[in-house]
Design a protein that fits this description.
The structure is a homodimer.
Chain A lengths: L17 H8 L3 H8 L7 H14 L5 H8 L4 E6 L5 H16 L3 E6 L4 H13 L4 E4 L6 H9 L4 E4 L9 E5 L1 H14 L5 E6 L4 H17 L8 E3 L4 H14 L5 E4 L2 H13 L9 E3 L6 H4 L6 E3 L2 H17 L7 E4 L2 E3 L6
Parallel strand pairs in A: 1-2, 1-3, 3-4, 4-5, 5-11, 6-7, 6-8, 8-9
Antiparallel strand pairs in A: 10-12
Helix pairs in contact in A: 1-2, 1-3, 5-13, 8-9, 10-11
The structure holds a DNA duplex.
Chain lengths: ~350, ~350
DNA sequence: CTGTTAGCGCTTTCAT
DNA sequence: ATGAAAGCGCTAACAG
């Protein structure tokens, strides 16, 4: 085959390597390596000459080859159950931002709330040799979750507890937030309250329950069992649970909701049954998603920046990576109460 | 150093390699490689024996080493301007899902609407040797965008045109959607309309404008210049632009909006100025984001599943990768008109 | 059906 | 301040 004559562009073009640069610059590959890694102790003129060749040839370091020898990929795994959910999308954004600033990239796995896929994702990320992982997983039982995390040199779980030898943890203090939200209700004279609990098996659900009961105890209030209604954490779930609660106790004066979606559903149920919010019934949500400010009446809720949560998780992971630090951190972030029209 | 006696667990544990498996199983590394890659034409007993050793040792293939030799990382780059925006979050989810099913992982870059970061992301993904990229970029000018894409063997751009030798393209037919939405307005007797255009420099803005003008021409309607009001693509932008339009033309009977956020803003402006929607003024949005169904009155809009859009982009990219196919594809997806209360 | 040899592109270690 | 040699863990190409 004759070279250079009407040769078609190859589909997989051979890329410029460190060897090409070294040859053209008349130095060893080692010297080129020193330049691209910005290592000190080099003749300034040599560095400039090599850099010029790099630019001329359009050389780009191969991160895969580098990863093989250094055993670091500068990549973090991020596992979320549903990126289309604004809650997780913002966590992703916060984590990606911090990682990016530190030179790390994010391998994203959306498990679609599927436990099988969560397990598979954790395995795939290990094969890809990520330097660490951030995992948002509410459903996987500890007994299978923790051994999976232990295989990582560095892991951070979000909104869940983990033993210090397994992973670091960054979470919202739902208990405290819920306690203050319910206290706010009592302070404004509400007594006849019900709790739309969501599904209580997960960490966040249990924490909210703890906070709710702490607030009751603070106020010396005791509630019948039918004031607790479990429901899917969705608008539809909220509609149904609120309807059930109002049927059981028609003179209810407040609905405490698992999250803002449930609260929006509660708003709709109140409207369709002729209850005015907040005059007849106060409604409080949880998480402070963007929608909370946009519905009518706007929602009293508590929460914090999910972007901060993701950023904190990433910073925790990077600290562990960069300090070659083995001890786990526990970050518990305090949410703030946002008082709007639904429970003034 | 004595081995095995109170030896502390190393921070970076030496992992099991294909060589370890080969030695324990009493075969060559090649045979192990054949097993982990499921290659046909092997003695079934050998395969089983090797597999048993793999399981016992907990061997996990090193994707980095594999990537170095095969020149394929089974990783796709995905660049979006803002994952916290539901529009892009759903695209990410659709793309991730398709990629995952095909055994590919997603390296996510959120550029935060920053052109510099977009360029840097495209470079970083190249260094990481992704097999292809999906890029959502509205702002980067063609003159800098296209050369960047050309460096990739396979690229897909979303909601933007690209020359066939640069990238494939998957986009929503905004022009057609807008044309039908405006026709719907005319059909219900509206004549006195204004267009809150967003910022027109980007592809989507120009396409919407094309569709809007086509609808005018279809109906034989001519509009004064002050019926076009540009605005940021946000709720606040919509409030201001709608206010301006209603001040300029108090007897307006319809507002066509760049997207649903602008339309929500228009709704708020109408309410605060005493216009009833849809009795006095009809409002139509674009994109059909989840919020569109939740506001009061609910929003007439057009759009399609963003998840599908992302999935289509990923499928287009994978087809190119898997068929070693060099030719670009053009996917133009037709949005559907969703008639709700704001423009019945 | 299985083994041997070579090498992917880079950094590490040790010389010079 | 620079270079030479070795090897990271794996697969491709060929041989047997």
């Amino acid at each position: 085959m004759l070279h250079g004559l009407h040769q078609p562009v190859e589909y997989t073009l051979k890329r410029v390597t460190i060897i090409d640069v070294a040859r053209v610059a008349g130095v060893s590959t080692q010297t080129v390596s020193r330049v691209i890694n910005n290592r000190p102790g080099m003749n300034a003129a040599t560095r400039l000459r090599v850099q010029a060749v790099i630019d001329k040839l359009g050389y780009e370091p191969n991160a895969v080859a580098r990863g093989l020898v250094t055993n670091r990929t500068m990549t973090l795994g991020l596992v979320v159950p549903d990126v289309a959910n604004a809650f997780f999308a913002e966590i992703v954004q916060g984590a990606e931002d911090v990682a990016w600033q530190a030179g790390y990239s994010i391998l994203l796995c959306d498990t679609r709330e599927d436990i099988k896929r969560e397990i598979a994702a954790l395995r795939s990320l290990r094969e890809r040799r990520v330097d660490g992982v951030i995992v948002c997983s509410a459903r996987l039982p500890n007994a299978t979750f923790w051994p999976l995390l232990e295989q990582y040199g560095a892991a951070v779980v979000v909104n869940r507890r983990a033993p210090a030898d397994v992973a670091s943890s960054v979470r919202i203090d739902y208990a405290s937030g819920m306690r203050r939200a319910v206290a706010h209700l009592f302070a404004s004279g509400r007594r006849n309250i019900a709790f739309l609990t969501g599904l209580v098996q997960a960490f966040g659900g249990r924490e909210r329950m703890r906070g709710f009961e702490a607030a009751l105890e603070d106020a010396g209030v005791v509630l019948a069992n039918d004031r607790y209604v479990s429901c899917p954490p969705t608008i539809e779930g909220g509609v149904e649970a609120a309807s059930a609660a109002l049927s059981a106790t028609p003179d209810l004066d407040a609905l405490v909701c698992y999250n803002d979606l449930v609260a929006v559903g509660a708003l709709q149920a109140c409207a369709s049954r002729g209850y005015r919010v907040p005059e007849d019934v106060a409604v409080v949500g949880c998480d402070d998603i963007p929608l909370a400010a946009l519905v009518t009446p706007s929602l009293t809720t508590f929460g914090l920046s999910k972007r901060d949560l993701g950023a904190t998780a990433a910073r925790t992971l990077l600290a562990r990576l960069q300090n070659h630090d083995t001890r786990a951190e526990e970050g518990v972030l305090e949410p703030s109460l946002i008082v709007r029209a639904s429970a003034p």
